[in-house]
Amino acid sequence: MKDLRKALCFGVLAVALIVLSERVAAPLHAAGKFQAPLGYFMGAVHFLNLPGIVAAQAMVSHPHARWGANFVFWGVGGSRRLWCFGADRARRGRWLSCMRIRNGEGARAGFRDAA
C-alpha cells in the first residue's frame, strides 16, 4: 500500500510540473521574464509531457487528456520502479526477475532457468 501511494505521488508530481510549466512558466517566458532558467525548465518538462501527448493524440482529441495519460504513464512507471528496486524487494522474491529485465535478458531467460 505504501508503494502504491509513492507511485501515485510520483504521477501527481509529474503532472504538477507539466501544469506549472504550461500555466505559469510559459506566460512568464513569453513576456520576456526569466527566459534563461524558464527555457531550460520548460524544455525538461516537455520530456515529461511526451508520453501523454502521444497517448492523447492516439486516443482522444481533448486538449487536457494528455494530463490524465501522463498521470497514468508516470504512475505506472513509478510503481514499476518501486516494485523492482523498493526496500523490501528481496523479501518479495522479485529481485532476480527485475535484474533480468534490467540486464536486457527479457522473458527468454526464464525459459533457460527452467530447463
Describe the structure.
- The chain has 115 residues and is mainly α.
- It has one domain (2-86).
- 82% of the residues lie in helices and 0% in strands.
- It has 6 helices and no strands.
- The protein has helices spanning 2-30, 35-59, 65-85, 89-92, 95-102, 108-114.
Comma- or semicolon-separated keywords:
globular, single chain, mainly alpha, 6 helices
Unreliable spans are none
What is the residue-averaged pLDDT? 75
**Count of distinct strands:** 0
Distance between the termini: 35 Å
- What structural class do you assign from the helix and strand content? mainly alpha
Could you provide a short overview of the structure?
The protein is mainly alpha-helical and 115 residues long. It has helices at residues 2-30, 35-59, 65-85, 89-92, 95-102, 108-114. α1 packs across α3 (65-85) and α2 (35-59) packs across α3.
